[in-house]
Specification:
Number of helices: 8
Strand content: 5-15%
Strand order of the largest sheet: 1-2
Number of domains: 1
Radius of gyration: 17 Å
Shape: globular
Bound molecules: zinc ion
Order of helices and strands: HHEEHEEHHHHH
């Protein structure tokens, strides 16, 4: 889940009446992606999302500081649930707390989060929007394409990793594809040994909080095969 800094976008208003009028500014600020599942807006439809629910916290219903973007799946699973006591993309490094897998799963990155309390906070965010819903999960619905979309995005990224490594395509093609497909964290994971690609993914997806990635971008030794 891409960590973001909305303060980089200076053209916003403090309040929007009605709140739906904030959508264009949010897309300019964050890119047209669901803030939770990272899918592209044209594939899933996104709308203004209230971090703190608009009815439970009516005084925050129109505040820019309370907005993100969310698809219908993430929004409806989140519902009116409170967000207190969990990691969140506006305040935490929500990329490295999760591990993305080729079979479409998202789970807690146990290697990065060594403390049980931190793992619980990460798991709470997965449950908040239902990123763990896939076949076999009691609340999984076939209409929820987030899991299968992640699998497809992984396969796409893997295919173009091979083209990139053989020199058939350059970094620009990878960035263009990532922007078109969405799934920023999947592209970051599949290209994790290629700092030139990671740097551009971080810099070219709007409002990505780059300060979290200074150490991450150092070249890493590849695991022995
Ligand atoms: Zn979503």
């Amino acid at each position: 889940m891409r960590p973001v800094n909305k303060r980089e976008f200076h053209a916003c208003q403090a309040e929007y009446h009605p709140y739906g009028t904030a959508k264009n500014d949010l897309i300019s600020a964050l890119g047209g992606y669901c803030s939770y599942c990272e899918r592209q807006s044209y594939s899933c439809g996104i709308d203004v999302e209230h971090i703190k629910h608009k009815r439970r916290y009516a005084n925050r219903a129109t505040l820019w500081s309370n907005f993100l973007l969310a698809c219908k799946n993430c929004n409806s699973v989140k519902g009116t649930q409170p967000v207190k006591g969990m990691f969140f993309p506006t305040i935490s490094d929500t990329f490295r707390i999760f591990a993305y897998h080729r079979d479409g799963r998202v789970d807690v990155n146990q290697a990065f989060l060594t403390q049980p309390a931190d793992r619980q906070k990460a798991q709470a965010l997965i449950r908040l929007v239902g990123l763990d819903r896939r076949p076999g999960h009691p609340d999984y619905s076939a209409k929820d394409k987030r899991w299968s979309d992640r699998k497809q995005t992984w396969a796409l990224a893997q295919r173009y990793l091979a083209h990139y490594q053989t020199g058939n395509i350059d970094t620009q093609v990878i960035i263009d594809l990532a922007k078109l497909s969405g799934g920023w964290s999947i592209w970051m994971t599949v290209f994790k040994y290629l700092p030139p690609v990671l740097t551009r993914l971080i810099n070219e997806f709007p409002a990505t909080r780059a300060s979290y990635f200074i150490h991450y971008l150092r070249p890493k030794p590849r695991p022995a095969r």
